[in-house]
Amino acid sequence: MKNQSDKIGIAVVGCGYWGINYLRVFNELAGSEVVAICDQRKERLQEIGQRYPGAVLKTELDEALQIPGVDAIVVGTGATTHFDIAKAALSAGKHVLVEKPMATTVQDCHDLIALAKMYNRTLMVGHTFLYNSGIRKVKENLSRDDMGQIYYLYSTRTNLGPIRYDVNALWDLAPHDISIFNYLLGRSPEWVSAVGANVLGSENQDVGFVSMGYGKNVIGNIHVSWADPNKVRQLVVVGSNRRIVFDDLNALERVKIYEKGVVRRAPEANTYGEHQFMMRDGDIYSPNVEINEPLKTQCLHFLDCLANDKSPLTDGWAGMEVVKVLTAIDQSIAQNGAPIWLNKTDEQDRASVQDVHQTYVQHSAAAASNGKTLIKG
Fold first, then answer.
1. What is the dihedral of CA 324, 364, 78, 72, to 10 degrees?
2. DSSP string, 114-136
3. 157 forms bridges with which residues in the sheet?
4. Residue extents of the structural domains in the chain
């Protein structure tokens, strides 16, 4: 643990659409210092370097990892590169904040969790919406005793792009909603069914619909698209006593609560066993939602975890649960929407990570005896 007066040295790898925001935030925060910036595009690196003249600029990851004062690496590159960069950073003894998705295979997630454990380093995944005050307000209301039974959730995340070429729209956009659903319900889905389409004629699906079963008769549905001219960022939770709406594009009413619902009453003798339903009609209101920048809240949480040896809210385990669902989505799409069951237990996952951890320990010991360093990229 670092001295409380020390700033945590940050190296940001990838200065594209989202990485530039990490640079800005960590440069502004009192507890961190941007020590290094790494990007393979020399022109982009020079442009960014003019804004952050105190940072060391590198085009090669290996060189960036060797810069004195770098305590943590932020991975803001394309999804298919996340594993290799995070793996090299952890192996070099750095803490890691990796953008979503954590990796593109469940096995790679296992490996990163095992490496973080081996080197006693923090591994955090950038599921930024869990640090959004609006989503936290939804969670707060779902936890109230008078919420009643949760029936279902659905979300819509559409826009005209930005279109990526390394992953499809589901891997790009759905991690937000999967992580939100898991957070709100406190568990992962039991099964997944999905369909997708290549309406733009590219190799990857640019439109997708996902259904998930969370047990206890709760279902969730996600719609994502790169091809819809109407930008929507909305989540709805429907329960027996109320309906809660989160609209990230509505600055005035980001969360709206409808005190309305319907529950089934027990049958009476004169109904011959038919159920009757009781409607609940109440107020519609918008609770006060704290104004915050979710990315800044997320970065503050990362720094707090590093300074005080805490486990992140969005740790490697949470990141791996999202990748499990994304993998099942691909499998279901390949089978025209057939349901894919996610039946691996948490105990089996942790045992698997322990096995991977032991393999790395043995590999490290063997490499050390030969005068080599484990995994340098």
1. 110
2. HHHHHTT--EEEE-GGGG-HHHH
3. 224, 233
4. 8-128+295-316+342-369, 130-290
By DSSP bridging, strand 150-160 and strand 227-239 are: antiparallel
For the 130-290 domain, the top CATH level (class) is alpha beta
User: What is the residue whose two structure tokens read 């006693």?
Assistant: 120
CB 278 within 8 A of CB 265: yes
Burial string for 267-295 (b: 16+ CB within 10 Å, else e) reads: eeeeeeeeeeeeeeeeeeeeeebeeebbb
- Among 282, 284, 157, which residue's Cα sits nearest to residue 228? 157
Mapped onto helix, strand or coil, the DSSP state of residue 214 is coil
Query: Three-class SS of residue 343?
Result: coil
Q: Which CATH number is correct for 8-128+295-316+342-369, 3.30.70.20, 3.40.50.11930, 3.40.50.720, 3.40.1170.10?
A: 3.40.50.720
Q: Could you tell me the two tokens for 171?
A: 């891997």
Q: How far apart are CA 140 and CA 37, in angstroms?
A: 38
Phi/psi-derived region of residue 40, left when phi > 0, alpha when psi is between -120 and 50, beta in every other case: alpha
Per-residue CA distances from 149 to 104, 121, 264, 285 (Å): 34, 39, 11, 20
pLDDT in tens, the chain (377 residues): 444 458 999 999 999 989 999 999 999 999 999 999 999 999 999 999 999 999 999 999 999 999 999 999 999 999 999 999 999 999 999 999 999 999 999 999 999 999 999 999 999 999 999 999 999 999 999 999 888 999 999 999 999 989 998 999 999 999 999 999 999 999 999 999 999 999 999 889 999 999 999 999 999 999 999 999 999 999 999 999 999 999 999 999 999 999 998 887 766 656 555 667 877 788 999 999 999 999 999 999 999 999 999 999 999 999 999 999 999 999 999 999 999 999 765 555 666 566 655 665 555 555 444 444 332 22
Q: Which amino acid is at 267?
A: P
Contact in structure between 67 and 35 (CB atoms under 8 Å): yes
Closest-CA residue to 137 (of 233, 254, 30): 254
Question: 10 Å Cβ neighbour count for 146?
Answer: 9
